[in-house]
Amino acid sequence: MEELLRTGRTSVKDCLICKKEKQHGIHILGAFICHKCEKEMVRADVTDDCYSEYVERLKGLETEMFIHGKKKQVTK
User: Fold this and answer.
1) Is this prediction's pTM over 0.85?
2) pLDDT at position 24 over 50
């Protein structure tokens, strides 16, 4: 990441939620979530229509862990 900042290059990744290519966001367990989706998810209420879609997409985090070979223990 520091190398990207020093050289001025940017990294484009596919967002786990919206499936669009974005440059800015967060990485969780090897997956990328863009800033827009992050903000929408944080503000979502369980009664919102989009809530169940967020839950389904976040289930993809487990898949991402296996793709990147980083099976991690998640504690509750």
Assistant:
1) no
2) yes
